Amino acid sequence: MTIAEVLLCDFDSEAISTRRVLERVPDDKATWKPHEKSFALNHLAVHVASLPMFGMAILSTDVLDMATHKFPKYEFHTAEKLIEVAAGAGAELRTKLASMSDEELQAEWTLRFGEHVVTTGPKYVLYRTMFLNHLVHHRGQLTVYLRLLDVKVPGIFGPSADEPFGS
């Protein structure tokens, strides 16, 4: 099995779970925050939906300088739009990943902020840590927001209190 094939298994599973969470983001609670230091719901949801663009940057560049690179800005409008953004960016990322050889995925990638190097390592490692784990982390935050807003939380790695097995 190639590195890309392994990463695609993870990606496909996480994309399905992410879609299930984004579908439940309430359109009428966009500016809600669980705490003054927390992201607003709209900011967190857009971040989760657009993270595949960061994964794409990892796979398609050798260096990403966050001091000069600007990702497209999306504003929260509806859960439907979140799903559209995630699906489009995810499809592009999936296509790129599927086309990559083990050699390409083992090439070095660097994330920097101007002169400050944040991290350097093989693309496949940083894809997993900087993109995929990042996605799972923020999707988990989003499920907590849903719970606090009394929105049914989907089962992701098994049942949830709202979606037990057998229901």
From TrEMBL:
Gene Ontology molecular function terms on file: metal ion binding
Record-linked Pfam families: DinB (PF05163)
Residues annotated as binding a divalent metal cation: H47, H134, H138
Keywords: Metal-binding
UniProt cross-references to Gene3D superfamilies, sorted A to Z: dinb family like domain
UniProt-listed InterPro entries: DinB (IPR007837), DinB/YfiT-like (IPR034660)
Entry-linked SUPFAM superfamilies: DinB/YfiT-like putative metalloenzymes (SSF109854)
Annotated family: Belongs to the DinB family.
Record protein name field: Damage-inducible protein DinB
Species classification: Bacteria, Pseudomonadati, Acidobacteriota, Terriglobia, Terriglobales
